[in-house]
Design goal:
Elements: H1 2-24, H2 31-48, H3 54-81, H4 94-111, H5 113-121, H6 128-155, H7 176-192, H8 198-204, H9 206-218, H10 221-232, H11 236-244
């Protein structure tokens, strides 16, 4: 309980502190980088306050590699684009903008709950099944890394202006990066299971469930699908792409109905 309260304080403190310069300078360049670094801060707390066992170190590395990959990618992307349209309606309103930053801090805390509990339990040995969960994490990390890179290269190519990406992993899923993200945190949750008791395992389940629900039903897929429908909804080729391509899980495109 102490560890969970401490990490909540850390997560909220970091995001509330960065909110102030972000609002004063009306910039989106801190938002996603702060998100990634908050995960690192929470993981650093967990490792520093508990035994640096092999199992704890492995979990720490998994979290930090994910955060470094995401943080660096988003840092490059926001400095290329200059702003994030998600915040256009709230950036000038301190309370709306602040509510987003508050939610971001809470989000990190929830996603990190099983890891926080695992660190606090000072687990010494790694269960063989944990390696399978770590493999799932790695697959997820690779999928979202490749998907993000493919989309970034596509959207920054002037020849693709006004087009949607339907190549690479995006040929098999309309949101493969989100699928990879869900696998990452499902893998991390699976890794922590051997070091949690039954109650903690049930509490920790909120992590993969929360990120899945958030991406699929709230802040991930819905706004992007709506934006795409507004831009290309009247385009027969886009409608055909949407009809034959899975929303989330990469899968061979559906064959055209005869």
């Amino acid at each position: 309980m102490h560890a969970a309260l401490a990490t909540l304080w850390i997560s909220l403190s970091i995001n509330m502190a960065v909110l102030l310069p972000a609002y004063m300078w009306q910039t989106d360049r801190f938002t996603d980088v702060c998100y990634a670094l908050t995960f690192v801060a929470v993981a650093c707390y967990g490792l520093s306050k508990n035994a640096a066992t092999t199992s704890n170190l492995m979990l720490f590395v998994m979290i930090c590699l994910w955060a470094m990959r995401l943080g660096s990618f988003l840092f490059i992307r926001i400095y290329t684009t200059g702003s994030d349209s998600r915040f256009d309606a709230m950036r000038t309103d301190f309370w709306k903008f602040g509510a987003f930053w508050l939610l971001q801090g809470v989000t990190v805390w929830i996603i990190m709950l099983p890891s926080t509990l695992f660190f606090a339990n000072r687990v010494k040995r790694i269960c063989p099944l944990a390696y399978m969960a770590a493999a799932l994490w790695l697959v997820g990390l690779m999928i979202e890394t490749v998907a993000d890179q493919q989309k970034y290269q596509f959207t920054t190519d002037p020849a693709n202006s006004g087009k949607w990406i339907d190549s690479g992993l995006w040929r098999y899923s309309r949101h493969p990066n989100y699928f990879g993200e869900i696998l990452v945190w499902t893998g991390i949750y699976g890794y922590t299971l051997f070091g949690l008791n039954t109650t903690q395992s049930l509490v920790g389940l909120i992590s993969p469930a929360f990120i899945s629900l958030l991406l699929v039903f709230v802040s991930g897929v819905p706004p992007l699908e709506n934006k795409a429908d507004q831009r290309w909804g009247n385009n027969p080729q886009y409608r055909a792409y949407k009809a034959k391509t899975n929303l989330l899980i990469p899968w061979p495109p559906k064959k055209k109905q005869q």
